[in-house]
Amino acid sequence: MRQIDLKIIILGALGVGKTSILHRYIHNIFYEDYRCTLGANIQQKGISVNGQAVRLQVWDTGAQERFRSMVSLFYRGLDGCILTFDLTDQDTFRELDSWRQSILEQSQAADADLPFIVLGNKADVKDRQVSRAEAEAWCNERNLTYFEVSAKESINVEKAFTAVASYALCWHKEKFVSNLTDSIKLKEDNKGQKTCCA
Ligand SMILES: Nc1nc2c(ncn2[C@@H]2O[C@H](COP(=O)(O)OP(=O)(O)OP(=O)(O)O)[C@@H](O)[C@H]2O)c(=O)[nH]1
Ligand SMILES: [Mg+2]
Q: Closest ligand to 36 CA?
């Protein structure tokens, strides 16, 4: 069976743990020291989603202000998005809306239904500033799936990626079918024109 490439992006405020979540998922490692991401990097992993071979390509971007304008260059061809905040930092939760809006504004109309999931990271820390109820309410209002994760203690990371991969695969297939239908329609229109002109 043909392997399908899925492009996912992980977004969120500075230091919320985007790179750590990704490293936990791809390499099963965790670093205590903070190595701020400069620009962007891509990690990939071959997985099976409901029996379909998939290559999950995850784009990880640094949240520093100087990289923000660059991030939107990576939105093209996305199949899914992971929005991340830090459960121990209320400000990073408030920033979710602007990250989500930046994607919605830049995407084409056809991408309006792009699948998003939301991760509240650092669930291992006792001293949290965002309650589960508050985060769930925000996600429910927008019909987004929510996971509390910890890159450090490897809580729910695998589960979250399995979910986003499965949503992204559905979306990718729908997009493929609708592109196919459009191109068939286009061919039929062309045919029609030829007959008409002949
Ligand atoms: N306690 C705890 N610390 C974490 C967790 N995930 C990440 N960290 C720490 O948070 C800091 C920032 O993590 P990064 O993964 O570099 O954050 P980032 O979102 O990639 O940051 P930028 O690339 O600068 O946007 C590091 O010191 C990590 O060790 C977690 O689940 N629990
Ligand atoms: Mg990073």
A: 1
Q: pLDDT per residue over 105-138, tens digit each?
A: 876 645 668 899 999 999 999 999 999 999 999 9
CA dihedral sign, ordered 119, 111, 142, 52:
negative
Per residue in 179-197, pLDDT (tens digit) is: 777 777 666 666 555 443 3
Indicate whether 22 belongs to any domain.
Answer: yes
Contact status, residue 35 vs residue 113, Cβ threshold 8 Å: no
Q: Cβ distance 151 to 17 under 8 Å?
A: yes
Supply the pLDDT for residue 110. 54
N residues, the chain: 198
Q: Does residue 52 fall inside a structural domain?
A: yes
Closest protein CA for atom 30 of ligand 1: 122
Q: Which domain range does residue 42 map to?
A: 4-184
Q: Which atom of ligand 1 is nearest to the CA of 61?
A: 23
Q: How far is the CA of 37 from the centre of ligand 2 (A)?
A: 4
Count the domains in the chain.
1
Can you give the pTM of this predicted structure?
0.90
Within a domain: 89? yes
The binding-site residues of ligand 1, defined as CB within 6 angstroms of any ligand atom, are 14-20, 31-37, 62-63, 121-122, 124-125, 150-152
Q: How far is the CA of 39 from the centre of ligand 1 (A)?
A: 16
